[in-house]
Amino acid sequence: QAFPLPSLPRKQPTVLVVCGPAQNGAIGLVCARHLRSFDYEPTIFYPKRSPDPLYRDFTTQCEKMDIPFLSYLPTEVQLINDAYNAVVDAVLGAEAEVAEGTEPCAAILATLKHIRIPIVSLDVPSGWAAEAGGSGDISPDVLVSLAAPKECARRFLGRQHFVAGRFLPYDVQRKFELNPPEYPGTECVVAL
Questions:
Q1: How far is CA 162 from the centre of its chain?
Q2: Any transmembrane segments, and where (predicted)?
Q3: Could you list the pLDDT tens digit for every one of the 192 residues in the chain?
């Protein structure tokens, strides 16, 4: 439901999916697969690939779907703005404290903060503290919270906020005292 964004014309539905080395990067790979299935044209930048077998499988699936991988992220932001209609931020997530200042994440964040096309952040915008800390330099247009919104979502000022949490087992909902929204029909995400 987070796609199609009104700013993505169907005649050129290009999306750059920027993946980090940890869990949020794997979620970005899955996102790229789904975008391809719905006739978008994703391109993936995944500079620090995880050795985890599951992440390797996700990478292979994307390759088998003929999703191109960039070998480098242009530092000239205008090249990205001209080539794509949106960027999916799957660089960091709740694990931001671990990798934010390390390469390649620091260089990616430096580039993303200057992007002028819509940014869709998965779970936690990269560079933001998941809990009570301040927000980073990235200002996404869309936030897709996974499972439940994190504390940082209170500071989100973009156009649309979605939550994808229908899949949460009831015992997890009870344990963390989550009150998920109603998901209409068979929808897996809902707008907040």
A1: 12
A2: none
A3: 455 454 445 556 899 999 988 888 899 999 999 999 888 999 999 988 888 899 899 999 999 999 999 999 988 899 999 999 999 999 986 665 444 456 677 888 889 999 999 999 998 888 887 776 555 678 899 999 888 888 888 888 888 999 887 788 889 888 988 888 888 888 888 888
Q: What range does the domain containing 57 cover?
A: 9-191
> How many Cα atoms are found within 13 Å in the side-chain-facing hemisphere of 20?
30
- Assign residue 88 the CATH number of its domain: 3.40.50.10260
Q: In the chain, how many domains are there?
A: 1
Nearest to 125 by CA among 110, 111, 107, 145: 145
pTM above 0.85, yes or no: yes
Q: How far is CA 32 from CA 25, 41, 71, 100, 175, in A?
A: 11, 9, 16, 23, 31
CA distance 54 to 167: 19
Q: How many CB atoms lie within 10 A of CB 18?
A: 27
27 by DSSP, 3-state: which?
helix
Residue 139 lies in a domain: yes
Within-domain flag for 184? yes
Tell whether 4 is covered by a domain: no
